[in-house]
């Protein structure tokens, strides 16, 4: 009887081991299935997030392009039929200056608009814009502000556009030696220059 009890116990233990083994394998399979599901969900989330980011990026690029075209259209209002041929060169230079000097297309087109509005010839406008952009970087301001100061001095002293670099150097020296910021100089140079 003792042998029989031991035999039953061994069989019960073997059967329990097999059952627990199956339970363990089932648990491992279930764990693997959950991990696979988790990876799938993470992948789906990643894909969704990636598509969302892509769409937002495209929207931003399209919005920026539309704004740039509106800015260029504004500049074109300062051109007549014969000077309209400069518009493609303006578009190209503004894009290049924005990249090279870190100025926005908005401030660059505003500067160009003001240059043309001040009756500086369409042919010389790109050179004056380049000078104003460099002045903006040196004066830690934006191109629209440096353009305003530059044009005010050119007009006040009836100087040719070819003197823009000289005027820019002078304005920078005033900012450098005085206790004045470029923005303040641009705002007040128009009232001071004619009386000097």
Task: Note the topology.
Elements: H1 2-76, H2 87-101, H3 105-117, H4 122-138, H5 143-156, H6 164-177, H7 182-192
Features:
Phage_tape_meas; Phage tail tape measure protein domain-containing protein; 7 helices
Any overview of this molecule?
By secondary structure, the protein is mainly α. The protein has two domains: 1-60; 77-195, no CATH class. Helices cover 81% and strands 0% of the residues. It contains seven helices and no strands. The protein has helices at residues 2-76, 87-101, 105-117, 122-138, 143-156, 164-177, 182-192. The radius of gyration is 36 Å and the shape is elongated. The protein starts with a helix and ends with a helix. The model has no long low-confidence stretch (mean pLDDT 84).
CA radius of gyration is: 36 Å
- Sequence of secondary-structure elements: HHHHHHH
Most strands sheet: none
Gross morphology = elongated
Extended strand count: 0
- Total count of helical runs of at least 4 residues: 7
Low-confidence stretches: none
- Structural classification: mainly alpha
Count of distinct structural domains = 2
Percent of residues in helices? over 70%
DSSP strand (E) fraction? Answer: under 5%
């Amino acid at each position: 009887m003792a042998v029989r009890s031991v035999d039953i116990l061994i069989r019960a233990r073997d059967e329990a081991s097999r059952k627990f083994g199956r339970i363990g394998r089932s648990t491992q399979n279930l764990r693997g299935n959950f991990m696979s599901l988790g990876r799938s969900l993470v992948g789906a989330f990643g894909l969704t997030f990636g598509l969302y980011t892509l769409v937002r990026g495209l929207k931003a690029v399209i919005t920026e392009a539309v704004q740039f075209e509106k800015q260029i259209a504004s500049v074109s209002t300062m051109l007549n039929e014969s000077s309209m041929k400069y518009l493609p060169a303006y578009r190209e230079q503004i894009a290049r200056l924005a990249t090279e000097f870190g100025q926005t297309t908005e401030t660059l087109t505003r500067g160009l608009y003001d240059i043309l509005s001040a009756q500086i010839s369409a042919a010389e406008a790109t050179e004056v814009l380049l000078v104003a952009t460099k002045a903006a970087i040196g004066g830690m301001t934006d191109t629209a502000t440096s353009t305003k100061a530059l044009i005010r001095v050119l007009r006040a002293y009836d100087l040719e556009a070819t003197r823009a670099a000289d005027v820019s150097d002078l304005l920078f020296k005033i900012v450098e030696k005085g206790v004045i910021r470029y923005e303040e100089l641009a705002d007040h140079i128009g009232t001071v220059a004619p009386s000097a």
